[in-house]
């Protein structure tokens, strides 16, 4: 099969983290569903199915045609964590199928795929970076994308919890596994955010280096909140799981996660103002901007689900307010991506 030079270049240079597009589109769609914007939610669902299919095709072609480059990316401190967007994107799309289309079959296939892929990626990445003979400094090798490890784990916990009654295993086993994933993801967050804060507070930070993936500092605890709230609701509804004693602990951790996510938002907004306002870094499209959209959309869904699980109606207006910000951020980023793709296609011919 002959591949055009433009498509071949797109395959070869595909950023590992481009599945953040699927994560962002999916979570904004789910948020729109929760606040009652069904037409928008359905439209974004279809967009997400197309985006996932296209990106997965490009990734598989890259594996076949440029496997050494994929392996180099996977064992890279800077680019390796981006592969966890494939896991999270698959789970977010699975959540859409479960909640919006009520199609447990497709959601289950996506969960199995994401779970198997996560096992391969997490050990390949950690072994690769641990045994690497040359390692970057903390300043060059660590950024917000490392928290995609937490995001991927929590996305597996959320979808697994939603599918607990449909999977061919005892519900108590699935929920126990989801609780373990929830706790593992939270521990990874504590480890990684400590290193990230150390970098931000004690190492020089250039405006150019404060890229959109730092929004995952907030998004990782937002999805932790969602995982906790989902577990709380399912454990309360299920009987004879033996997990009811964990409910006070899950409620406490979920509230800690939501409070932490809320604290991050003003700080990151102020730093974005410093980057683009004071330091005059121009705003130009990059796939990294989907890592900005996803946390905003996730904060909407996490706040809504926490309000439902804890019966705190005063959180609903917060979720509704941020839903507008999430939709505007998605639309602006999607438009910028389309313009960028058109320019990229036309460029070789000019």
UniProtKB/TrEMBL annotation:
Gene Ontology CC entries for this record: plasma membrane
InterPro entries: SLAC1/Mae1/Ssu1/TehA, Sulfite_efflux_TDT, Voltage-dep_anion_channel_sf
Primary localization class, coarse: membrane
Protein's membrane topology: Multi-pass membrane protein
Subcellular location: Cell membrane
Coiled-coil spans in chain: none
Name of this chain's protein: C4-dicarboxylate ABC transporter
A Pfam family reported for this protein in Swiss-Prot or TrEMBL: SLAC1
Entry similarity comment: Belongs to the tellurite-resistance/dicarboxylate transporter (TDT) family.
Ranges annotated as spanning the membrane: 17-37, 49-71, 83-103, 109-132, 144-167, 173-202, 214-232, 252-271, 283-302, 322-342
GO molecular function: sulfite transmembrane transporter activity
Keyword Transmembrane listed: yes
UniProt keyword terms in alphabetical order: Cell membrane, Membrane, Transmembrane, Transmembrane helix, Transport
């Amino acid at each position: 099969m002959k591949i055009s030079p433009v498509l071949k270049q797109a395959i070869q240079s595909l950023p590992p983290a481009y599945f953040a597009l699927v994560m962002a589109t999916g979570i904004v769609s789910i948020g729109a569903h929760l606040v009652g914007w069904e037409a928008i939610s359905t439209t974004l669902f279809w967009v997400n199915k197309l985006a996932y299919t296209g990106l997965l095709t490009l990734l598989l072609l890259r594996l076949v045609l440029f496997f050494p480059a994929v392996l180099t990316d996977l064992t890279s401190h800077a680019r390796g964590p981006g592969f966890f967007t494939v896991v999270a994107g698959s789970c977010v799309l699975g959540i859409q199928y479960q909640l919006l289309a009520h199609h447990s079959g497709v959601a289950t296939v996506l969960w199995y795929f994401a779970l198997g892929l996560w096992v391969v990626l997490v050990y390949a990445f950690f072994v690769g970076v641990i045994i690497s003979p040359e390692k970057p400094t903390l300043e060059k090798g660590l950024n917000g994308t490392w928290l995609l490890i937490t995001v991927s784990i929590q996305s597996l916990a959320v979808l697994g919890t939603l599918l607990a009654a449909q999977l061919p295993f005892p519900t108590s086993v699935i929920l126990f596994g989801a609780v373990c994933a929830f706790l593992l993801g939270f521990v990874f967050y504590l480890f990684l955010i400590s290193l990230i804060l150390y970098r931000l507070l004690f190492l020089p930070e250039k405006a150019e280096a404060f890229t959109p993936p730092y929004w995952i500092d907030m998004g990782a605890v937002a999805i932790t909140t969602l995982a906790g709230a989902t577990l709380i609701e399912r454990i309360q509804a299920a009987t004879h799981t033996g997990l009811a004693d964990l409910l006070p602990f899950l409620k406490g951790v979920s509230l800690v996660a939501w409070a932490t996510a809320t604290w991050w938002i003003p700080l990151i907004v102020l730093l974005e103002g410093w980057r683009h306002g004071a330091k005059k870094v121009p705003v130009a499209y990059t796939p990294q901007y989907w890592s900005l959209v996803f946390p905003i959309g996730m904060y909407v869904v996490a706040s809504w689900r926490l309000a439902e699980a804890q019966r705190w109606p005063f959180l609903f207006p917060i979720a509704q307010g941020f839903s507008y910000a999430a939709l505007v951020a998605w639309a602006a980023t999607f438009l910028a991506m389309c313009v960028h793709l058109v320019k990229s296609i036309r460029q070789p011919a000019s």
